[in-house]
Amino acid sequence: MIPAWALDGPLAALLLWLAWRVLRVEDLFQAGVLFIVFGLLLAVVWLRLHAPDVALAEAAIGAGVTGALYINTLAGMEAHPAEPEPAPAGWAAASRWLAGLLSVVLALLMTVLALRLVLAVPPPVPTTPVAGKLTNPVTAVLLDLRSYDTLLETAVLVEALMGVWILGRPLAAAPHTAPEALRGLVRVLVPVMVVVSGALLWNGGGGTGGAFQAAAVLAAAGILARLGGHSLPFLHHPRRRAALAGAGTAFFLAVGLVLMAVTGSFLGYPAGGRDWLVLAIEAVATLSLATVLVVLFEATSPRQRPPEGDP
Amino acid sequence: MPPAPGMGATMAELLSLSLLAAGVFFFAAGTVALLRFPDTLTRLHALTKADNLGLGLIVLGLALRTTQPAEAGVLLLIWLLALTASGPVGSLLGGVAARQEPKDRRS
Fold this sequence. Notes:
- The complex is a heterodimer.
- Chain A has helices spanning 5-24, 28-48, 52-79, 91-120, 137-144, 146-167, 180-203, 211-227, 238-263, 274-299.
- Chain A is an all-alpha fold.
- Chain A folds into 2 domains: 1-79; 130-311, no CATH class.
- Chain A is globular and about 60 Å long.
- By secondary structure, chain B is mainly α.
- Chain B has one domain (12-97).
- Chain B has 4 helices and no strands.
- The termini of chain B are far apart.
- The interface between A and B is small, with 8 and 9 residues.
């Protein structure tokens, strides 16, 4: 039998080396590709740590969607190179320093809070052990605090989207014509991906999967459809788009508050009703998260032209 | 791998091992070609074939090692998915390459 370190040792070394290369490589496109490879290897590492949920999320979001956003941004930078700004003076310069200082203070504060949390909480014991399977502590925590995990994920992504909207990048308007090979691929893969997403959502109740993983796959299907020249009905309607993006967090909070009124604790599920409530929340969260990811992709897409109408 | 009850299991294991070895060989050959071939089109040519065949052999080798038909089915589905994706992706990359480096291709 080959010892575990014979695989894990080189894997860890390769991961560190890739991280170093991503930071140091001159060519930004190469950095982007290396970053995607880094994400895929990291997913393998999570698998080796018996945390398939985290591995799925890392592969889909960390390597897939983030990689697409990165390449998009690069192409946009080439299409519209930034003009050098004059150095800020007076209040503008002061406000930049202030913003920087605030960020540092906030980062320190969060580090202290995170450390306190890590030191205060005893090592997690999963209340819902997965029968007969090795479970990583991270997976155990994710299972235990599943609701908060998903709630915060939806909130974080909505916030990221708000950031992009504040930057005021308009979305690509008209569908374009894609090469026939790509359109064929879209016809075959998109239905498969939608089914996989549904399976991940359904599976989340008892095993590997959940809203975030399902949303990542659904978003990938949406992005692929967009690349294949399809228009998605919700994408170009600002109100519908915003409503769909926010629906996950809003529904989550609403259910949590109603449960608080009934059972006395936020997201304290009543006995028996838990499974269906969780599935309902996660179904809405999946649609919402997928919308946010597709809109993020569209907003960074180099195909669109600056600035006109559509916020 | 379940304990081999008899001759059949041993044969299956031998077959599986040789399929896996052949798969690894094709992956290695594809990687060498990717590193050594001069331009995008020849690299793609080597890569799509080596990867599809390499993955297929590894999937077959692994499918022989599982006792559950469902697991073997999932493995075959993964191969089918990879085949479905790699054809069009190869064609797309080839299209871009043909537009960008036509001189390299003819020389």
